[in-house]
Amino acid sequence: MLESLNQNSLKKIIDNLIILHNQKDFSEVIKKTKILIQKYPESEQLFSIMGITLLSLKEYGKALTYFKESIKINPKNSNSYFNIGLAYYNLMDLKKAIIYYRKSLKINDKHFDTLFNLAITYKENKNNKQAINYYQKALKINYDHVFVHFNLGNIYSEQLDFLPAIKHYKSAIRIDPNFPDTYYNLAATFERIKDFSNSLKYYKLS
Q1: Rounded to two decimals, what is the model's pTM?
Q2: What pLDDT band is residue 6 in, cutting at 50, 70 and 90?
């Protein structure tokens, strides 16, 4: 009974911390969470909240410490591995970012944010094949994600594979017709295949 009361109390505390975080009162979140971790050292959520707050403050190295502690408590939480990957990505350690994103996917292979970020990381690591692979997996979960289509369009266009580039740019426009960069890139792609009529059409819309 006492344990149940403690869990209910902790849940209310965590809900309050999330509200403070969403209000961007990061200093208050950090102050409260540091105290609470002393009281509840086995709370994975408290370590995660601290890590996420530090990510928001761009204190990536400190965030890693808390995320790694949360993994010690619960090594089966895909979000913790994702957050570590995100911290390493922001520290420009792409190799480690990829390692932790892939660990996240071993636990949950349908984690959209991990698939999306892994694709971005592979692209920055100059591995277009893997970037396309993970963008395609992301599309199986959310086909109507404008930036997946836009980024795929860019990769295919860069590889001079213009037909799939056009397909993905058009999908991006269908999803979000108010994103001018897509029209511009689509126009440039049509220009490269000497379809000047369509090129002019989309340049005017950009």
Answers
A1: 0.91
A2: low
In whole angstroms, give the CA distance from residue 168 to residue 136.
11
Residue 190's Cβ-side half-sphere holds a number of Cα atoms within 13 Å equal to: 18
Q: What is the sign of the dihedral through the CA atoms of 151, 157, 160 and 165?
A: positive
Supply the DSSP symbol for 74.
-
DSSP string, 7-31: HHHHHHHHHHHHHHHHTT-HHHHHH
Under 8 Å between Cβ of 51 and 71: no
**Which tokens go with 101?**
């994103």
pLDDT tens digit sequence for 24-39: 999 999 999 999 999 9
Residue type, 19: I
Cα–Cα distance for residue pair 183/93, rounded to 1 Å: 33
In 10 A of CB 33, how many CB atoms? 27
Structure tokens at 177: 């017709």
Query: DSSP strand E in 27-154: where?
Result: none
Give me the phi and psi of 49, to 5 degrees please: -60, -45
| 53, 24 contact by CB (below 8 A) | no
Burial class of 149 by CB neighbour count within 10 A (0 to 12, 13 to 18, 19+): buried
| Span between the terminal Cα atoms of the chain, in Å | 63
